[in-house]
């Protein structure tokens, strides 16, 4: 219950890390959650699950494409209308597509820049506009270890996430006088996430020229702690950075990567 009575917004909340972080926010005592994503049906399912499991927490869902200015503004308006304020934004929506630079399609480049970087900018801007009126707030970007070190055959993803670090550091300065802290969390490989299960095992088998069934072991072997990142590892840092214990921390990017790099 370290985030008692807080109202939080999570983007990309319908599945994977986003839905797990939303659940942890409810467990930590948040009384209002704005959950947004482009996948409306999954949000509906989540809302029903939360109503059963976390009756203390009001959940508002909005279909929101983080790349669209009007969609982002509308989502935040809907959340603030229903929940009356916004204390925290966990900006998690993100996409990845891997290919060698000489084969990299422009549309896949643009898609990742749009969602991972422009989407973060639009959501952070909208959240900050509300938080400024409260004189406080916390913005957390879900970045990646690929936002701090280049990533093999992953140019667009790494470029978009590196950009997110620059944005985090810069807006932290803009917003510090308004009591708003901005930090980035940089997870290692979430090997059980839909992102990996749905596409990355296949894409990374191709990029490294190895059989798909050994991709998991290949990635685990790169981590000194010998395992992939778990949702809980990320959620624990999110709770700390959102709490009063982190009240002097802003403009930072923290890895949660088991010693990798
Ligand atoms: N999976 C990993 O190994 C890993 C590692 C480090 C960082 N991350 C980051 O964690 C975050 C969540 O990743 P995940 O593994 O849960 O992936 P995921 O694909 O399961 O979830 C991403 C969510 O973002 C949503 N989304 C995609 N485009 C959107 C858009 N235009 N507008 C709004 N929502 C959109 C998707 O619908 C989905 O619900 C991402 O930012 C990702 O870059 C993931």
Q: Could you give a quick summary of the protein structure above?
A:
The protein is an alpha/beta fold. The chain has eight helices and seven strands.
Which structural class do you get from the secondary structure elements? alpha/beta
The number of domains? 2
Number of strands: 7
Largest sheet: 7 strands, parallel
Can you describe this structure?
There is one protein chain. This protein is an alpha/beta fold. It has 2 domains: 208 residues, Rossmann fold, CATH 3.40.50.720; 38 residues, no CATH class. It contains 8 helices and 7 strands; from the N terminus they run βαβαβαβαβαβαααβ. Strands 3-2-1-4-5-6-7 form a 7-stranded parallel sheet, with helices on both faces. α1 links the parallel β1 and β2. The chain starts with 6 loop residues before the first strand and ends in a 5-residue tail after the last strand. The model has no long low-confidence stretch (mean pLDDT 97). The site of nicotinamide-adenine-dinucleotide has 29 residues, from α1, α4 and α6.
Which features characterize this protein?
7 strands; 7-stranded parallel beta sheet; 15% strand; 261 residues; binds nicotinamide-adenine-dinucleotide; 8 helices; Rossmann fold; alpha/beta; 2 domains
Outline the secondary-structure elements.
Layout: E1 7-11, H1 16-27, E2 32-37, H2 40-53, E3 58-63, H3 69-83, E4 88-91, H4 106-134, E5 137-142, H5 155-175, E6 180-187, H6 194-208, H7 215-220, H8 231-242, E7 253-256
Nicotinamide-adenine-dinucleotide is lined by residues 11-12, 14-18, 37-39, 64-67, 92-95, 115, 119, 142, 144, 187, 189-190, 193-196.
């Amino acid at each position: 219950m370290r985030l008692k009575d807080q109202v939080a917004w999570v983007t990309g909340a319908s599945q994977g890390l986003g839905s797990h972080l939303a659940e942890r926010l409810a467990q930590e005592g948040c009384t209002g959650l704005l959950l947004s994503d482009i996948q409306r049906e999954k949000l509906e399912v989540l809302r029903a699950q939360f109503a059963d499991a976390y009756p203390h927490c009001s959940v508002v869902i909005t279909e929101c494409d983080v790349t669209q200015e009007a969609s982002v503004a509308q989502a935040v308006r809907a959340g603030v209308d229903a929940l009356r304020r916004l204390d925290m934004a966990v900006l998690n929506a993100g996409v990845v597509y891997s290919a060698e630079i000489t084969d990299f399609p422009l549309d896949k480049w643009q898609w990742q820049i749009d969602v991972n970087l422009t989407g973060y900018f639009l959501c952070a801007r909208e959240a900050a506009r509300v938080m400024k009126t409260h004189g406080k707030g916390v913005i957390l970007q879900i970045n990646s270890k690929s936002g701090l070190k280049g990533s093999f055959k992953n140019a667009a993803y790494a470029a978009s996430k590196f950009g997110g670090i620059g944005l985090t550091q810069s807006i932290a300065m803009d917003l510090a006088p308004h009591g708003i802290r901005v930090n980035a969390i940089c997870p290692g490989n979430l090997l059980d996430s839909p992102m990996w299960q749905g596409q990355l095992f296949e894409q990374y088998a191709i990029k490294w020229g190895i059989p798909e069934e050994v991709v998991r072991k290949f990635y685990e072997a790169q981590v000194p702690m010998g395992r992939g990142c778990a949702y809980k590892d990320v959620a624990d840092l999110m709770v700390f950075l959102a709490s009063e214990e982190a009240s002097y921390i802003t403009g930072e990017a923290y890895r949660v990567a088991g010693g990798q790099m």
